[in-house]
C-alpha cells in the first residue's frame, strides 16, 4: 500500500498556481477549492494531504518533518539554508533577487554602505564576496521606502515585474540571482517515502516539460 504524502503549499496566488500543477500531474484534491478557512485537505484517492502555509514558513515545516514535501521560493532557500532536499525547479513564480537604489545613486567607496532588506543573510553573503563593508537595516516589508526616505543607500529585495521600483523612482543596480519555486523534501521522510515522492517528482517533471 502506498503511503500518504503530506505537502505544504505556499498560501496565496503562487500557491494556487502550484496546486493546479499538482492537480494536472494527477495529484488533485477537490476539497481544496472549497471556499473555507480550513488549512488541511486530504484526498484518499491520490493519497495526498495538502496544507496551506505562509510561504516563508514552508521550509520550516519540511525541515522539521511536519510535511514530507513543500514548495518554497529559491529566495527563502538561499536565505535560510534549510537542511532539506531540493528535488525540482517548478519553473513557476519567476522573479529575481536584486540590489536597487535611487536612480541618481553613486556608491561612495569611503563609506559603509547602508543596506535595507528582509533578506539579511542573502545581503551579507553577497557583499562579503564583494569585500564591501555594509550596515544592514533589517525591515519587514515596503523595503522600497528605505532609500526614498534616506534610511538606506540601497535595498536587497525581490523584483518581479519591476513596478514597485519604477513607481518609487528606484532602479536595479545589480541582479543577484534568479528565483523560482522549488519542490523540497524532508530528508528522513524521503527515505521512508522515496517511491511515492519520486513518482510525484516524475509526474510534475512531465507537466513542466509539456509547458515549456
Ligand atoms: C515584494 C517585493 C517587492 C515587490 C516586487 O513585496 O518585496 O516589494 O513584491 O514586485 P514587483 O517587481 O512586481 O513590483 P511584497 O508584495 O511581497 O510585499 P512586502 O512589501 O511586504 O515585501
How many helices? The count is 8
Number of strands: 11
Q: Which cofactor or ligand species appear? A: 1-O-pyrophosphono-5-O-phosphono-alpha-D-ribofuranose
Radius of gyration over all CA atoms, rounded? 20 Å
Helix share, percent? 25-40%
Give a description of the structure.
By secondary structure, the protein is α/β, with parallel strands linked by helices. It has helices at residues 13-24, 58-63, 74-80, 120-130, 145-148, 163-167, 187-192, 194-211; strands at residues 5-10, 40-43, 48-53, 69-73, 85-89, 95-102, 113-117, 134-138, 154-159, 170-179, 181-185. The strands form two sheets. A six-stranded mixed sheet has the order 2-3-1-4-11-5. A hairpin with a 4-residue loop joins strand 2 (40-43) and strand 3 (48-53). It is elongated and about 65 Å long. The relative contact order is 0.21. The mean pLDDT is 95. The structure holds 1-O-pyrophosphono-5-O-phosphono-alpha-D-ribofuranose (PRP). 1-O-pyrophosphono-5-O-phosphono-alpha-D-ribofuranose binds next to strand 9 and helix 6. 1-O-pyrophosphono-5-O-phosphono-alpha-D-ribofuranose binds at residues 141-144, 157-164.
Summarize the structure.
With 212 residues, this protein is α/β, with parallel strands linked by helices.
Throw out a few tags for this protein.
about 210 residues, alpha/beta, six-stranded mixed beta sheet, five-stranded mixed beta sheet, binds 1-O-pyrophosphono-5-O-phosphono-alpha-D-ribofuranose
Topology, element by element:
Elements: E1 5-10, H1 13-24, E2 40-43, E3 48-53, H2 58-63, E4 69-73, H3 74-80, E5 85-89, E6 95-102, E7 113-117, H4 120-130, E8 134-138, H5 145-148, E9 154-159, H6 163-167, E10 170-179, E11 181-185, H7 187-192, H8 194-211
Parallel strand pairs: 1-3, 1-4, 7-8, 7-9
Antiparallel strand pairs: 2-3, 4-11, 5-11, 6-9, 6-10
Amino acid at each position: 500500500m502506498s503511503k500518504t504524502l503530506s505537502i505544504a503549499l505556499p498560501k496565496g496566488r503562487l500557491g494556487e498556481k502550484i496546486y493546479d500543477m499538482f492537480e494536472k500531474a494527477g495529484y488533485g484534491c477537490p476539497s481544496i477549492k472549497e471556499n473555507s478557512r480550513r488549512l488541511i485537505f486530504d484526498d484518499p484517492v491520490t493519497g495526498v494531504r495538502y496544507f496551506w502555509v505562509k510561504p516563508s514558513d514552508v521550509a520550516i515545516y519540511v525541515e522539521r518533518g511536519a510535511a514530507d514535501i513543500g514548495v518554497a521560493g529559491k529566495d527563502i532557500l538561499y536565505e535560510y539554508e534549510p537542511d532539506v532536499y531540493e528535488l525540482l525547479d517548478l519553473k513557476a513564480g519567476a522573479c529575481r533577487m536584486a540590489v536597487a537604489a535611487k536612480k541618481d545613486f553613486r556608491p561612495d567607496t569611503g563609506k559603509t554602505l547602508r543596506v535595507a532588506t528582509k533578506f539579511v543573510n542573502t545581503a551579507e553573503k553577497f557583499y562579503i564576496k564583494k569585500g564591501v563593508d555594509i550596515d544592514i537595516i533589517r525591515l519587514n516589508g515596503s523595503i522600497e521606502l528605505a532609500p526614498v526616505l534616506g534610511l538606506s543607500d540601497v535595498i536587497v529585495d525581490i523584483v518581479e515585474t519591476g513596478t514597485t521600483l519604477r513607481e518609487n523612482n528606484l532602479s536595479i543596480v545589480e541582479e543577484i540571482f534568479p528565483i523560482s519555486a522549488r519542490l523540497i523534501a524532508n530528508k528522513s521522510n524521503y527515505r521512508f517515502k522515496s517511491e511515492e515522492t519520486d513518482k510525484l517528482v516524475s509526474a510534475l517533471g512531465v507537466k513542466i516539460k509539456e509547458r515549456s
